[in-house]
Structure to design on (186 residues):
């Protein structure tokens, strides 16, 4: 299984297509969650050279002698981090690694016609021999074109109340636990 945090193309609050900036917390926290749940790779999608260089500098720091000695857990989490310019490059990288194109699953706070439940996707992941790529959007979500190109759209993460605006870091951890975490309810 693979996870990607997409910074472009995404929407801003006025539903204009934008590129968001990489945040330190998203890199660290989602890399740690991805490694904890034994994902193959965690991708950052951002086409801006300055943002790709920022990711590379952080990854290099934690792989350096000082960073690795200071926090070996962070070094291990960052070992599965990669950066690409677009989702197509991510799909191509996965296909080159495993020999087949991944099943692409997007996420959103709304339901769509091809929405899949957590249980159904979990069953597919555990019972079928296919790579899965889950795309998380930044800003105000993935663009319509990205959503329409996906094989499935994962149902929203709902809490107990009406409020529904999780940070992407929180959503990533919840989604990973629901899809590949231990079956504590058995």
């Amino acid at each position: 299984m693979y996870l990607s945090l997409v910074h472009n193309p995404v929407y801003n609050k006025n539903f204009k297509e934008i590129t968001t900036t990489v945040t330190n917390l998203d890199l660290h926290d989602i890399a740690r969650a991805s490694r904890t749940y034994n994902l193959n790779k965690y991708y950052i999608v951002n086409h801006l050279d300055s943002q790709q260089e920022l990711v590379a500098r952080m990854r290099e720091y934690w792989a350096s002698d000082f960073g690795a000695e200071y926090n070996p857990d962070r070094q291990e989490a960052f070992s599965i981090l990669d950066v690409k310019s677009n989702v197509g490059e991510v799909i191509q990288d996965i296909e080159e690694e495993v020999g087949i194109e991944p099943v692409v699953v997007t996420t959103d706070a709304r339901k769509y016609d091809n929405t899949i439940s957590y249980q159904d996707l979990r069953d597919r992941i555990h019972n079928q021999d296919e790579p899965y790529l889950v795309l998380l959007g930044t800003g105000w979500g993935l663009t319509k074109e990205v959503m329409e190109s996906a094989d499935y759209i994962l149902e929203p993460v709902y809490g107990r109340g009406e409020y529904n605006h999780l940070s992407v870091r929180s959503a990533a951890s919840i989604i990973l636990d629901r899809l590949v975490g231990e079956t504590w309810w058995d």
Observations:
- The longest helix spans residues 49-63.
- The chain has one domain: 2-180.
- The CA atoms of residues 104 and 150 lie 5 Å apart.
